[in-house]
Design brief:
Layout: H1 5-24, H2 36-44, H3 53-62, E1 65-66, E2 71-72, H4 79-92, E3 98-99, E4 103-111, H5 117-123, E5 132-145, E6 154-165, E7 176-195, E8 198-211, E9 221-233, E10 236-245, H6 258-262, E11 265-273, E12 276-283, E13 291-301, E14 304-313, E15 325-335
Antiparallel strand pairs: 1-2, 3-5, 4-5, 4-15, 5-6, 6-7, 7-8, 8-9, 9-10, 10-11, 11-12, 12-13, 13-14, 14-15
Length: 338
């Protein structure tokens, strides 16, 4: 059994509260406005000087509530288009950092086996790591240039920080077992090309660095040029993200075989239904060195959602890129996929 009984009980309790919250609360956690005037007044107060009224007006149209049905006026806008329009508001607000990837905290993240080998090699002695730790991620981006292709194409600086924290391990002073830093320079352009009923909503290309900030035998890092194409059809979104690893000198390469485990691309599928989001991401799906991640987020409160994440395979973090890992985590997500 992957989880001890106490964690299974906690999981079931949160599942029940999440299901109840889905029935009792609005499934969409975006801000709501009763009139266009109300929305514009609030957004203009914090907008950047270069933001136009037309941009804010278009974004506010998404956030209008039909007072008779409490639903959005836009009916078939698509889940990714919804996020893009709301991001337009945050990008125009100079007091707001725009979410990038998921931002979450999993206070209970249980691994069937915690990889202690790299730390024992570095320390020259056994390291007593616990199987339960805290997994959290913070991911933000800042718009630095817009409309580079006439009225399309934005340039962002983004940063994602993911940490695995042995917070319950007082015997070794509660260390951070692993922290992965991922800054990127990202160009993003919207699109409306369609194929097989799917609309190609977004295309991106970026220069990405990822490392764990360690030295010596614990050091892990690589640099990539990564692209991403995102398609949507109603509540279903699909993303294909291929990458090219920038070569390094062999003597400077901390992990020369990382592509054998993380491959050259990943595929993500996500489906939204009544406030719930089910998603899966896979790398090297037809290989014995691949991985799959499953996620389920569900309503709890207007600004916080429950989050369950399961991972199996290689590449759970940089320090574990060549070690098979199976883990399950339960907690909350603050900024979701959409």
């Amino acid at each position: 059994m992957l989880l001890p009984r106490a964690l299974w009980a906690a999981s079931l309790a949160l599942f029940a509260s999440g299901a109840l919250a889905a029935e009792l609360t609005d499934s969409n956690t975006m801000p709501r406005y009763q009139s266009l005037e109300q929305c514009l007044k609030e957004q203009v107060a914090h907008a950047a000087p270069e933001s136009s009224i037309a941009q804010l007006r278009e974004s506010c149209r998404l956030l209008l509530v039909d007072t008779t049905s409490n639903t959005l006026h836009e009916q078939d806008i698509g889940v990714l288009n919804t996020r893009l329009r709301v991001e337009a508001i945050s990008s125009a607000n100079r007091f707001v950092l725009t979410p990038h990837n998921r931002t979450y905290v999993l206070p209970l993240n249980y691994s069937q086996h915690t990889n202690a080998a790299p730390f024992e090699e570095a320390a020259g002695k056994p390291t007593d790591l616990q199987n339960t730790e805290i997994d959290f991620q913070i991911s933000l981006k800042v718009l630095i240039a817009q409309d580079l292709l006439h009225d399309n194409g934005n340039l962002y600086i983004a940063y994602t920080n993911r940490s695995l924290w042995q917070a319950y391990n007082s015997d070794i002073s509660r260390p951070f077992r692993e922290t992965n830093h991922e800054p990127e320079l990202l160009f993003s352009a919207t699109n409306d090309w369609q194929i097989f009923g799917f609309r190609n909503v977004l295309n991106q290309v970026g220069l990405v660095h990822q490392s764990n900030g360690q030295s010596g035998t614990l050091s892990r890092s690589w640099n990539r040029i990564r692209a991403r194409s995102v398609f949507e059809r109603g509540n279903l979104a699909l993303a294909f993200a291929p990458w090219y690893r920038l070569p390094e000198k062999l003597e400077d390469d901390d992990n020369p075989d990382i592509e054998d485990y993380l491959g050259h691309y990943e595929i993500t599928a996500a489906y939204a239904y009544k406030g719930h989001i089910i998603d899966t991401t896979t790398r090297r799906p037809f290989s014995d060195k691949g991985s799959v991640e499953l996620g389920w987020s569900f309503p709890l409160r207007p600004t916080v959602r429950g989050y369950l994440k399961y991972f199996h395979g290689y590449g759970a973090s940089l320090i574990d890129y060549n070690v098979e890992t199976q883990s399950i985590g339960l907690g909350v997500v603050f900024s979701d996929l959409f």
